[in-house]
């Protein structure tokens, strides 16, 4: 991975960041998921399409884009729009799925020179970053003046059903509960983060999606296949009780015989001044 020496100011920012996520575990999860992510590609592609639809709201034409953490679905969608794409991912295996120029790079220490791109697209990747303001600053610096950032990340309320079911099941089994679903930002904080990072015209809105599962266990399989499993520094390292996940899945609410999983997506747009 390149880039640590090009961003000394951000190294200072990172030194004071709270370590919420174990980035080595995040990388390992994405390495592992690279072999299986094709099975969840349609859901990831639908989310990416919804994000890229925002490009239709501007008359500006983009020529050079950076795809951050696109899991092999974002880059092809951008190329279909006639945009040249460079992809990066914390996992080299995941970066290789993008079908074009790609580099293994940490979102917290990006290796790209200032003014390299006129568009940056980050679909469902920034929620594993410890220093989100610092990462947004680096993305803004990678943009040319007048360039656009498009990003989506899970917001507060995502997987609320699973979070509640796991907590209640673990308390019933052990008398306590450890964090098993990541914390997500509140939508109200997202526009402020963009402004803090120096973006002009920052906007944060929300899209609520609900995926229904006939078999609740498939929800856990799809989270694993997309690299979205527990990487919290404060996670319980012990093997969970055997009855935990069956009990939690059995307690999930049903809609017409199916189990819903709520995805509350914060969609962020901001322009490089």
Task: Offer a quick outline of the entry.
With 273 residues, this protein is of the alpha/beta class.
Give the CATH topology of the domain at 8-157 and 183-212 and 262-271: Rossmann fold
- H/E element string? HHHEHEHEEHEHHEHHE
Instruction: Give the CATH class of the domain at 8-157 and 183-212 and 262-271.
Output: Alpha Beta
State the strand order across the main sheet.
3-2-1-4-5-7-6
SS-derived structural category: alpha/beta
Head-to-tail CA distance between termini: 29 Å
Strand content: 15-25%
Number of strands: 7
Major sheet description: 7 strands, mixed
CATH homologous superfamily designation of the domain at 8-157 and 183-212 and 262-271: Vaccinia Virus protein VP39
Provide the helix percentage: 25-40%
Query: Spans with pLDDT under 50 lasting ≥5 residues?
Result: 1-16
Main features:
273 residues, alpha/beta, Rossmann fold, 7-stranded mixed beta sheet, 7 strands, disordered N terminus
How would you explain this protein's 3D organization?
By secondary structure, the chain is α/β, with parallel strands linked by helices. The chain has helices spanning 8-15, 23-33, 41-52, 74-80, 92-95, 132-142, 160-174, 187-196, 217-225, 244-251; strands spanning 64-68, 84-89, 102-104, 117-123, 143-154, 200-213, 259-271. A seven-stranded mixed sheet has the order 3-2-1-4-5-7-6, with helices on both faces. It is globular, with a radius of gyration of 19 Å.
């Amino acid at each position: 991975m390149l880039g640590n020496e090009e961003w000394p100011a951000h190294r200072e920012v990172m030194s004071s960041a709270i370590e919420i996520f174990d980035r080595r575990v995040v990388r390992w999860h994405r390495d592992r998921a690279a072999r299986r992510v094709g099975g969840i590609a349609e859901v990831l592609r639908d989310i990416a399409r919804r994000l890229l639809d925002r490009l239709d709201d501007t008359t500006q034409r983009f020529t050079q884009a950076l795809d951050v953490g696109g899991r092999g679905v974002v880059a092809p969608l951008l190329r279909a729009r006639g945009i040249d794409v460079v992809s990066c991912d914390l996992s080299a295996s995941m970066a290789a799925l993008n079908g074009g120029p790609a580099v293994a790079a940490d979102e917290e220490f990006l290796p790209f020179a200032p003014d390299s791109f006129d568009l940056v697209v980050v679909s469902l990747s920034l929620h594993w970053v410890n220093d989100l303001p610092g990462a947004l600053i680096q993305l803004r610096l990678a943009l040319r003046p007048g360039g656009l950032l498009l990003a989506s990340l899970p917001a507060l309320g995502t997987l609320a059903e699973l979070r509640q079911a796991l907590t209640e099941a673990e308390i019933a089994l052990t008398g306590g509960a450890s964090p098993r679903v990541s914390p997500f930002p509140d939508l109200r904080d997202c526009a402020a983060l963009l402004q803090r990072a120096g973006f002009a015209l920052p906007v944060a809105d929300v899209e609520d999606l609900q995926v229904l599962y006939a078999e609740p266990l498939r929800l856990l399989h799809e989270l694993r296949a997309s690299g979205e499993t527990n990487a919290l520094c404060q996670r319980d390292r012990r093997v969970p009780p055997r009855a935990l996940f069956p009990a939690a899945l059995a307690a999930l609410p049903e809609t017409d015989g199916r189990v819903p999983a709520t995805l509350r997506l914060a969609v962020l747009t901001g322009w490089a001044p």
